[in-house]
Amino acid sequence: MKKIIDFIQLNGKALVLIIAIVTAFMSVRLGEIEMKEDEETFISPNSPVLKEFREFKKTFESNEGVIVAFESPNIFTVENFKYIEKLEAELNKLPGVTNVNSLISANNVNGVEEGLEIYPVIELVDITEANVEKAKEKVIGNQFYEGVYISQNQKVTALIIELPGMFSGGSDSLAKLFYKKLTNLVNTQELETGLRLYIGGDIVTDASIEQLMDKDLALLFPLSLLLSAIILLFFYRKLVTTIVPLVPVLIAIVWVLGLKGWTGVPMTPISITLFPLIMVIGLANSIHIINHYKRERQFESNNSEAITKTLQAIIKPCFLAAFTTAIGFGSLAISDVTGIKQMGIFAAFGVMSAFLLSIIIIPLSLKYSNVFAESKPNIQSRNSITRLLLGIDRLNHLHSWKVMLVFLAITVAIVINIPKIKVEGSMASFAKENTRLRQDIKFLDSNMSGINAYELIIKGSENSFKNPENLTKLDEIARELSENSEVLKTFSAADMVKTINKALHANNTDYYSIPCTETEIAQYLFLYEISGGDELSSFVNEDYSVARVTIRTSQMPNKMQKEFVSSLESLMLSNFGGMDCEITGFGMLMNHINENLISTQVESILMAFGIILILMFIMFGFKGGLLSILPNVFPILFFMGLMGIFGIDLNMATSIIAAVTIGIVVDDTIHFFFGYKNEMQNVNNPAIAVTNTMLKVGTALCVTSLILTLGFGILVFSNSKFIGDFGIMSASAIASALLGDIFISPIVLIKSKLFKK
Amino acid sequence: MKTTLLVLLILFSTLLNAQDGRAIVRLYEKEMESTDQEAMLTMKLISKNGSTRERTLIISNRTDKSNRDASYIYFSAPADIKGTAFLSVENEAGNDDQWLFLPTLKRSRRISSNEKGKSFLGTDFTYEDLGSEKSSGITYKYLRSEQLGNIILQVVEAVYTNPTRSKETGYSKRILFINSENNMLVKTEFYGIEGTLKKILDCSNFEYYADSKKWRPKTLIMKNMEKETQTILQFEYYKINKGIDPNRFTLRNLESN
Questions:
Q1: Do residue A523 and residue B47 have CB atoms under 8 angstroms apart?
Q2: Is the CB of A542 less than 8 angstroms away from the CB of B112?
Q3: Looking at the partner chain, which of A517, A518, A531 has a beta carbon nearest the beta carbon of B111?
Q4: Do B113 and A107 touch (CB under 8 A)?
Q5: Which residues belong to CATH 2.50.20.10 in chain B?
Q6: By C-alpha distance, which of A149, A157, A203 is closest to A180?
Q7: Predicted-complex ipTM score
Q8: Which of residues 156-175 of A touch B (CB under 8 A)?
Q9: N or C: which end of chain A has fewer CB within 10 A?
Q10: Which residue among A114, A517, A542 places its CB closest to the CB of B110?
Q11: Where does the pLDDT of residue B140 fall: very low under 50, low under 70, confident under 90, or very high at 90 and above?
Q12: Which residues of A407-432 are buried (b: 16+ CB within 10 A; e: fewer)?
């Protein structure tokens, strides 16, 4: 330890130079950080689930699609049809768009006496009341229209924009340009017509979230900086003493961002929290060093000696505090959710960088400036905290069992709400309820056939799906699924074959069935294909060896999702047991992400808890280690119970609170137990030792907890619901941890008589 | 005076260029003209992910005395669609009446679809791409000459000046590359209404049919830049102006397959 301190003291200027060089090096790539939010934010590109999903998209040439919808009491009017025509023309002009389909432009396969008609349901040049009525007859009950271009209640119509491969090729700027022009068009149209247009699709969700991320970056960084400055100004009362402690954390943030730039790891929605977190967590190091130095300077006239004594006393606890916090974040590295894994690693790096920079920069500032020694503390606030702590100490001594009982009652009352927590893997919930993105998705989800799709992929041999038996089985799967109330719609090649069969027999409904021979099916599908039907490749592959059944469902709770997937598995097994079958689709991705979020929550907390427990055993022995964990279990159970009570979902951000906060709140316990251990060596009386510890350490615990609670609390101003929930829940965990440390810790120490000789 | 002269000069040169462009295309049209033609070909459809579908077919075309076109297409492979045949006859109104014969139904069915600008038999070609140059609503402009190996290509821009036709076809313009030696089209670039490159057609393996004194490409490759698909037409043979029986282009013939 002495060697480290001497090294810092002797090589201060050289170390500053090295910091400057590293900072300059890191700054080079600051501008190259990308904002990213896509499937890979959640799932590793090597994950079999993502691979299967991408393989499916490739096989069935599943293009990116964007939906634009509007509502009207009666869609089937001349005015609405003319507006759909106008809107479609405008949407067609957007960059990257290859096709727009709507109620009036999608081709309808219709059987007539002498043959087959493949036309839209209305001729654009002839939109009259009578023709609109005829179009309505063709559309109602037509499964290729209902839930796709028209809602079941016939009050909402949708236009579907096709955006082929160019967006999946990584052309991010084109997707952004498309989104910008789309929103401009929507705004103009809404102003012109007074209609409310609803938009949805992956591109819309991603671009909206990236906009929210931009806003958050612009808001949260200055806000956390301002908060930190206010707190520092409150305690130290001078501008210089406010600025200096901020320097190490600001440099640490540059390092983190620089490392992101150099490693090419993008900013994801969750990593937005890095700025305020590193800021408030890192600031604690500077505050501890300065506070200790100020106390030393009251007794030590030699500045250099005071600094050495400060570092001797502070490096170890500060390192332990930073290290446990880094463990909390670092434990997230085991998560299968890519964004969380990256966030954990970079936050851990940031926290340790802030520690390293603080123990170099702050002592150097103290060496060359006397301003910290001269700054007067805010006595009044300190006295009121002391009075409060003494009151709590008295309560702990006189009513220890009652206090414990109250905590137990609170814990039980809150814990019973934990099972109410819902898992929400969808990125759409990143945005707040009142945002346009959320409102639009909710509207489209409830009016059209849902965004939650499962895809059954069945792999046979060449021409397997020209075989009537296999097509009948596809049809049977759809029939069985239609009995499930969660299933909104199913599509497969069987529907197409049945529709053509009926159309070729003058729309006779007796022929809405799978033909008996393979040749008939082959020729019907060929007919469909050469008649301009381009949907076929969406349901069977080129050589008819792989078929797909699309199942659109309503949003289901996690448990129901799992049951649904296992029912799909048994359905596939009973119908296509001899073939290779897979379940993929957006619903499956969500299912996988949800499971990953739960396992992230459980595994990361176990890992962080395990490592911290080992550290506690090393520091306080077996009994002390176990006792030190008790006050830290309370805040974890407390915030999880609050999540259940207030209906806050377990999502990408909230799933990491437990691991992150355990690393942070355990610092206070370490300080309290260390303080108590020191006191016991002097007084060997648990009751007196606890009171003395409360007075010496309690104020610092309250101040750092206040800073951290406010620091996390400002995240509530985020434009994102994710980040807001994360901030408020973390803040509640930290605040409740303080209660654990000033109530539970003293009582367990008194009752256990730990460290008594 | 000087200004007037300059304006006249520009107008004259524009007119000259337009004339040149149209004349070059007219020579190509003349080369492609025939009263009838039969060709056997293999059609290969390549999807975005690289998988292929192949079909073998015989296409017969005929233009009658009233200058109305008729086509008869017979599919001979793969086995499950063998015998499927397609008949398209231009009616008096200038639209195409289309019928399809499916062997499994044992009779023909009339197909009525909005084919303009739509895919031809599920390929990357549209009916417009394969039809003759109907120059109404199109302005041809000679752009430049280009050397390709030993041959000189005349580059002509065909701009769709009629918005209705442009909307129907989905094209704003095409750039035609025509071999100045044999007047054959070597390449065409198709541009969408927004001006983006939609498709590229490459023609190669040209063969001279001495009996009819006509050149024909034996390979056509159409690349769809938007959908990332392509269609390859590989011609086995052409029979040009051999006098195809007009009865081939009748419903009775279609159903007697």
A1: no
A2: no
A3: A531
A4: yes
A5: 1-32+125-226, 34-43+51-114+236-257
A6: A203
A7: 0.80
A8: 164-166
A9: C
A10: A114
A11: very high
A12: beebeeebeebeeebebbbbbbbbbb
Q: Do B49 and A165 touch (CB under 8 A)?
A: no
Neighbours of B2 (CB within 10 A): 6
CATH 2.40.40.20: does it fit domain B34-43+51-114+236-257?
A: no
Contacts of B114 in chain A (CB under 8 A): 107, 118-120, 532
| AA identity, residue A596 | N
8 Å CB contact between B87 and B254: yes
Among 2.102.10.10, 3.30.390.30, 3.40.50.300, 2.50.20.10, what is the CATH number of B1-32+125-226?
A: 2.50.20.10
Q: Is the CB of A524 inside 8 Å of chain B's CB atoms?
A: yes
Contact check, Cβ <8 Å, A119/B47: no
Q: Which residues of A touch B47 (CB under 8 A)?
A: 61, 537, 542
Q: What tokens does A56 get?
A: 């499916």
pLDDT digits (tens, 9 = 90+) for A39-64: 777 788 888 888 888 888 777 766 66
B85-116 pLDDT per residue, tens: 999 898 887 778 888 898 888 878 887 765 55
Q: Of B118, B68, B65, B58, whose CA–CA distance to B88 is shortest?
A: B68
Residue of chain B nearest A167, judged by CA positions? B226
> What is the distance in angstroms between the Cα of A190 and the nearest Cα belonging to chain B?
24
Q: And the tokens for B19?
A: 């004339």
Q: Do A118 and B112 lie within an 8 Å CB cutoff?
A: yes
d(CA A495, CA A482): 13
Give the C-alpha separation, A390 to A404, whole Å.
18
